[in-house]
Amino acid sequence: MKYWLRYVPLARMLSGLTAGIFCAWFLTIPTSISVAAITTLLTLNLFLLLRPSYRWGWISGITVVVMSFLFGNTYTHLRSTSLLPADEPQAMVSGYASDITGFTGKAMKVDFIADTIYMAHKKWYNQKGIVYINNDASMGIEPGTRLSFSMRLMPAKAPTNPGMFDYQRYLRLNGYSYTGFADTASIKRGNQPKKSIKVLTSRLKEGIMATFISNGIDSTGLGLLQSLFLGDKSDMDQQTKQAFMNSGTMHLLAVSGLHVGIIFLIASAAFPQSKKRKIKSLRFIYIVLFLWFYAVVTGLSPSVLRAVIMMTVIEAGRTFTRELSMTNLLTVSLFIILIINPQAVYSAGLWLSYSAVAGIVWIFPIINNLFYFRFPFFNWLWAMTSVSVAAQIGTLPFTLFYFHTFPVYFLINNLIMVPLLAPVLSLAIICLILSPLPFLAQMTAGVLNDLLRFMENYVIFSEEMPNSF
Q1: 302-319 vs 257-270: helix axis angle to the nearest 10?
Q2: In whole angstroms, how far apart are CA 25 and each of 8, 83, 294?
Q3: Alpha helices in 181-218 (DSSP H)
Q4: Residue 215 parent element (H or E)
Q5: What's the pTM value of the predicted model, to 2 decimals?
Q6: 141-199: pLDDT as tens digits
Q7: What is the DSSP annotation of 233-266?
Q8: 3-state class of 446 per DSSP?
């Protein structure tokens, strides 16, 4: 505890902020009371700083935690999304499609930003929701397409037992305020498409997947590649998802620190290091822009945001020769993520990502130092084993809490699957770069197809092994 209080400056603030965000789900502190309390505590803290006393120094630490708690609670309520009332089932909607997130049997699933929603003589503005559009009317709809239509709202019902999926909670945590079905006959399309960063990244993702298809990536591997490279599991079949989860390799499907680390190594290899200051600065700018571009394309999930923030700071320290503390990096990146999106504290991916890194930072050195081999290959194999075990130990509490299962063969599966991720991501990037040269791009896609097919077949085989989970 003394280490955290002395050497991790944000520890107090982060603990209070996290607790305040968590409690916001069932505890509402009025904004006026929260602001008054924060002002009073801040005044007290300033008074203690002006008249320092060892005897009353502990009060300053407590006030910081309480202020952070109040701020986290109030800030979360201000940023939270409320579901639209479903008393009136029909609504008139006008806005634009921000992303195409999948297809059901008869409809296309669209993330829709409604500029206006008119319902029951009331208007709502700038509301994000999920709209299902019949396949017959969905032709030509792409990210940025402006639409107006009559919508039948689909009320999200509260779960009737503790084991049911809480759809209301899911919608609110992801910023959705409504779901509904568009009336096909009432759909009208606008002339000028909407331009935004979200729309541009959605179109870029569609363009990337179209390039993979044109270069010969088959349909069976396309969904897996989309998950591994872009973190989008919408086109992946449920059987393969379940196989990855039961084999202990589900983390490969969610773009996280492992993926960002590989992208970082690829970017670093493309721009070798130099002792010249100008070249070092240019290399830093290039790598950082490359990492943040990849993060934006993959959707800026909490795990990706954590990894990119940490990689940016690490590269800055390496470029400008500054010492870094991994513990401080973890706390700073988590603090930034919670300020950007307080709802991320409820994300399983966030805690799995942080617990895995924490396991690698604190447990890996202990395990790795247990044995030393003279033969380099054995040292590499032991290091890989140590990393996998350390990460699994770190994520074990959250794995049991979220998935209620523990993969028995996780060690063997990760030793086989994790090394394959680097060539998959490298070949995917090479395939995109070589797309103007169809022959070379298709040769690369052929090798990539074989790797994807092997990964899919292996996790299914691993799942079918006796007592695998």
Answers
A1: 40
A2: 28, 14, 32
A3: 197-214
A4: none
A5: 0.76
A6: 888 888 898 988 887 777 777 667 777 888 888 888 888 898 888 888 888 778 777 78
A7: -TTS-HHHHHHHHHTT-GGGTS--HHHHHHHHHH
A8: helix
